[in-house]
Amino acid sequence: MPGPSIFLVFGATGGTGRHFVSLALEHGHVVRAVVRNPSRLDPDLRKNSNLHVKQGSVTDEITYLDELVRGTEFVVAMLGDAAARSVSKINVAFVRDQLVPALRRKGVKRFLYQAGGLSKPYGAQLPFFLRVLRNTVALSYGGQHADNEAVMEYLGSQARDIEWIVHRAGIGSNSGSKGQLTRSRDKFSVATLRTALRIISGSSQAIRMRYTLAIRAITIAEVDACIRWCNE
């Protein structure tokens, strides 16, 4: 793996974001984390000199965003806030109106956005059984899916100058899983912890692969794979 890099992470205290930050630091990278509540960060992580925390929310104007982006090599958004997204598409507003303009101003090209496995890819449809899941057991997450889909539509239609990837994965738990994760535009799979490391990030083709579809029972493996993708 190449030498240490600088990551800017939004959603660093969420279910996936906390794993991403932990693994990035474990690999020796520098992480700039923007969080609503710094007290939710793991106290052990806060002791790491490579972690730099700024308090802020994507629902507000982040006046220091250019300062955060400057010198950053990779920007990662793993944003949740289901309650806010049930009434407003806050993620697409942030990505479109604040984040991507800042990336362009500062010449940062790589952006990873975490969406949900039940969010429909831009220009495509979900498989039938995933549509059924979305409209039954996952119905309460409709606001998040609509927001994710708006982000994907914006990136796919208006941000092709940015080298972005949308990581679409359903989060089940942090427990083990069975099978082998494979890269696909229209299929899903569940992977064991380390099998996933070489899949999403496996080759330079991942750079241009717009969507990754994976229903997972573990978050850590794919988070690690995302870090590796950023460092290809």
Keywords for this structure?
232 residues, alpha/beta, Rossmann fold, seven-stranded parallel sheet
Report on the architecture of this protein.
- The protein is α/β, with parallel strands linked by helices and 232 residues long.
- The protein has one domain: Rossmann fold (3-Layer(aba) Sandwich).
- 32% of the residues lie in helices and 18% in strands.
- The protein contains eight helices and seven strands, in the order βαβαβαβααβααββα.
- A seven-stranded parallel sheet has the order 3-2-1-4-5-6-7, sandwiched between helices.
- Strand 2, helix 2 and strand 3 form a beta-alpha-beta unit.
- Helix 1 crosses helix 8 and helix 5 runs parallel beside helix 7.
- It is globular, with a radius of gyration of 16 Å.
- The N and C termini lie close together (8 Å).
- About 18% of the residues have low confidence.
The percent of residues in helical segments reads: 25-40%
Please give the radius of gyration in angstroms. Answer: 16 Å
The end-to-end span amounts to 8 Å
The backbone outline, from C-alpha atoms, is globular
**Low-confidence sequence ranges:** 175-181, 188-221
Classify the fold: give the CATH topology: Rossmann fold
Major beta sheet, strand line-up: 3-2-1-4-5-6-7
Portion of residues in beta strands equals 15-25%
Number of domains: 1
Q: What is the SS-derived class?
A: alpha/beta
Largest beta-sheet characterization? 7 strands, parallel
Subunit arrangement of the protein = single chain
Instruction: Estimate the mean pLDDT confidence.
Output: 76
CATH-scheme architecture: 3-Layer(aba) Sandwich
Task: Give the C-level CATH assignment.
Answer: Alpha Beta
Helix and strand string, N-terminal first? EHEHEHEHHEHHEEH
Number of helices: 8
CATH homologous superfamily label: NAD(P)-binding Rossmann-like Domain
